Amino acid sequence: MGRQRTFDEDEVVRAAVGLFGGRAYDGVSVDDLVTHLGVHRNSLYKTFGSKRGLYLVALRRHLADDVHPLAEALAAAPDAATALRLITSADLDLLLLAVVERAPADEEVAAEVAAALTAVDQAIADALGIPAALAAALTAAALGILLRGNPDGVGTALTRRFDSPD
User: Fold this and answer.
1) pLDDT tens across 14-57, in order?
2) 30, 41 Cβ separation under 8 angstroms
3) Are the CB atoms for 62 and 95 separated by under 8 Å?
């Protein structure tokens, strides 16, 4: 009979979301996972198969817990300024890192990220009654603000512009 699991898989996955979202896939070693998640190396491999396996589970959790609820909130956005505020205030670190680091090199990650972004774009398009391409541009602008860290109040200035167009 094998050893019983001594960790909560759900807690480990949540912690992995934070670790990968803060340091990216390539910035996290298996030793980092073992140390920060409190999981023995053998248990990590037995449960998730590999670092990539844990990453995929963590990414899917992030999409389910953070990105899909964002899309639902965006579906009720009354205007572009609200949509912009919702996106720029969301915790999307793992999504952003997945887009720039893993998606170009990993087809499975690329598919997950593309589906999530399409859902966000469609929610905005439906809520605001605008073409999908325009909704994608709004999403891209908001994600760009997040990537830049909102320097010089870019997000605030853009939101003000949407709030009171001249």
Assistant:
1) 999 999 999 999 999 999 999 999 899 999 999 999 999 999 99
2) yes
3) yes
